[in-house]
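Task: encode each sequence below as structure tokens.

Item 1
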Amino acid sequence: MLVFMTNILDNFKERMPLIMGILNITKDSLFDGGKYTTFATIQNRINAIVREGADIIDIGGESSRPGAKSISVDEELSNIIPAVEFVKNQSDIPISIDTYKSEVAYECLKSGAHIINDITGLKSQKMLDLIKTNNCPVIIMHMYGEPATMQNNPLDVNEDYVVLDFLRSQSDLALSYGIKKHDILLDPGIGFGKTQNLNIKLISELNNIVKLGYITVLGVSRKSLVGAILNEEIQNRLVGSTIINFIGITNGAGIIRTHDVKETVWMRKIFIAFKEKKVPVY
């Protein structure tokens, strides 16, 4: 059994907020579903994420967009493992795995992944066991319902306490189970069973989650929230996503999960320059 003896995020704390580049090897993900169906296109995407300056790469093999259907463990692994192995052979960038299946998480950790990004927020006993045994960081995300039905009856703007209570209770559970505090990250789950007004409120009041004492992850890249505000299709949501991400980091987000790595890295440079009141030295 692999055991990670140090917190991989410690080496990056001076670079907060961190940029997490997304690689979805799926047929029907929201923005990039079907784009990376051959090993060559997967390699090109990985190389681009690294070249454009991401701090972490987040690899997913199953779509979690609203209405998405679950796939088998074997299919998910066949999507992900070759990508994990390629990243390990080409780069030292930390690898996050976007999965809620403990079997997938285990095989990916064996293959060299470092972080588990669990959209179900550690509801699985097997996932709790796996995270504790391997001492690896875990992203606890809030989702109301399941991907296939989560937008049928979403949480409304006055139900933000549901999200905060869940993240507090699940992080407390993780601590009580022996998972180290520095290995726990929290994600409000923008778009996962929430109205757009609640999504806006959660981002505007992100400090309420930050105050729980953990690194906060924000993922709004190209999502329907951006489309609803701008009345634009997904291909025209880059600027909107970047602006919302800027708002997120001003409110305390520690990791930005994005499809658009280069532009988000640029945004971070501007944020840091104004925060430190000086032009960076290259």
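Item 2
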Amino acid sequence: MLFNSYVFIFLFLPITLLIYFGLNKRRLVFVSLIWLVFASLTYYGWQNPKYVLLITGSIVFNYTIGTWLRSRGRTGSIYKRKFALIAGISGNLLLLGVFKYADFFISNVNSLAGLRTPLPHITLPVGISFFTFTQIAYLVDAGRGDAKRHTISVYALFVSFFPYLLAGPIIHHKELIPQFCRLREKLLNHRNLNRGIYLFSLGLFKKLVIADAFAGWVSNGFDHAVTLTFIEAWATSLSYMLQLYYDFSGYTDMALGTALMFNIKLPINFDSPYQSSDIQEFWRRWHITLGRFVRDYIYIPLGGSRISEARTLLNLMVTFLLVGLWHGAGWTFVLWGGLHGAALAAHRLWKRCPVRMPKMLGWFLTFNFVNAAWVFFRARTLKDAVRVLGGMAGMNGLVLPEALRGGLKSLQSVGVRFGECLVHLGGGERTMGIILAGLLLCLLFRNSNEMVSRFKPDLIHLVFASVVALISILHLGSHSEFLYFRF
């Protein structure tokens, strides 16, 4: 069930809200909690009910290990605690490995050993990367003695709460479980409901109206075009850069908005990342909860920056290679992660120099690096990535619109051609205008977090939200999946 579907917006969400707050109004707090767990599992299993057993088994397994670590594990042998923690983490990684990386592992073994082992082609359960990371963090905290006691019903809701279940944000138990237990948050809060609907509408507009506008050009450029000229290649890369941002941040806005309707406040996951003036700032603004997770549970346990400079740089590389692999089972993802790890290492070394880079130059370099790296993230193969990057470097020539021939005819002597400049993308005259509008919107205007913080239930906001929601609802028929569901 997608957020951007009729059944979610007009049936599932309002029914879930009405029953949840109706039960709480009658002081049936425990029943309302069970109802929310049931609704969340129904949401998760809507397309494939068999995966409800998968997430339920994962919840029971991790709750059992976590309970032992939190209670008897504190007084038991340190070796037993470590064994239980390692067993718990290994169980989660095994689950993730089987469903997400089996084909990747077998295909690479086949290539190296000259084997022909058939690939299992296991369907990836949506959201498995997110609820697995969430529970690994919980187990680590339980092993440290940082997790408090709570019932399995509360824990089940923490893992399965439907607003963030499929694509994040990656939630820390300390910031969410206490909210589920606060009695004052159980009753309908009209301020939160209004702000939640407003934020949900912004996210829906981002996804359906903005992100999906780029989808066709991205698909044509990456998957279908044999060659790409200079303008076509840049239009392809920038279209994906914008599609990914508006798609994923739009999903996050809808997740935060939906949770807020239930009086639950989720952490911000995006903060205008394309405005960043260096790569470190980019990762403080992009997929913030993932950055927090890898910092706390991978980078710092590896030693972080408390050790030698060489080890610190190595830790950055290892961390981001794993970040790349987490996003997908393919060498293009590993390379994308490696590029970001190398960029962060280079940035760390640069900060030791006495010369300071001008902010605008830093932004220009960061923006173009991120854009080029996204090419590997999106491309199905390294060959496809090289094809797009080659076009961006001008290796396939430059084609300018026919209308410019009169004034720039002399450029033909250096190989510039005139004609339809976006023919391989299926784009027209409006393509570059839409790309420019998308860039200006995320670079110069307030983001949705800032907009919702200024929200007031007045006429101006009512009209704006109504127009945004109406335009979005008119685009509901597309039923396009969110990009991060693949990761």
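Check on item 2: The chain has two domains: 6-188, 193-278+357-486. The two ends are 17 Å apart (CA to CA).
End of task.
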